[in-house]
Amino acid sequence: MTTPAQFVRQVKQEVSKITWPSRGDALRGTVVVIGASIILAAFLVCVDFVFAAAVGAVVGG
Fold first, then answer.
1. Contact 9, 1 (CB under 8 A)
2. Contact of 21 with 29, CB cutoff 8 Å
3. SS (H, E, C) the chain
4. What CA–CA distance (Å, rounded) separates 61 from 46?
5. Which pLDDT does position 1 carry in this prediction?
6. Max intra-chain CA distance, the chain
7. CA 27/CA 22 separation, integer angstroms
8. What integer pLDDT is reported at residue 22 of this predicted model?
9. Residues ≥6 apart with Cβ < 8 Å to 44
10. Tens digits of residue pLDDT in 7-52
């Protein structure tokens, strides 16, 4: 069984192996995610509008 002290040492060893992104990489990734989210939201608004119009035409409302 692992003692709490061993666990903490193992966690520190594993965290030291992580390759963290640079500030620029993190910023570019954030911009891509926000941009993709905006584009997807706009697409879904358009699809919703088309479906609402189609259902309205079929139902007669």
1. no
2. yes
3. CCCHHHHHHHHHHHHHCCCCCCHHHHHHHHHHHHHHHHHHHHHHHHHHHHHHHHHHHHHCC
4. 19
5. 87
6. 71
7. 9
8. 97
9. none
10. 999 999 999 999 999 999 999 999 999 999 999 999 999 999 999 9
Provide the token pair at 4. 């709490």
Angle at 48 between CA 46 and CA 57, to 5 degrees: 110
Q: What is the pLDDT of residue 61?
A: 64
Q: What's at 1, amino acid-wise?
A: M
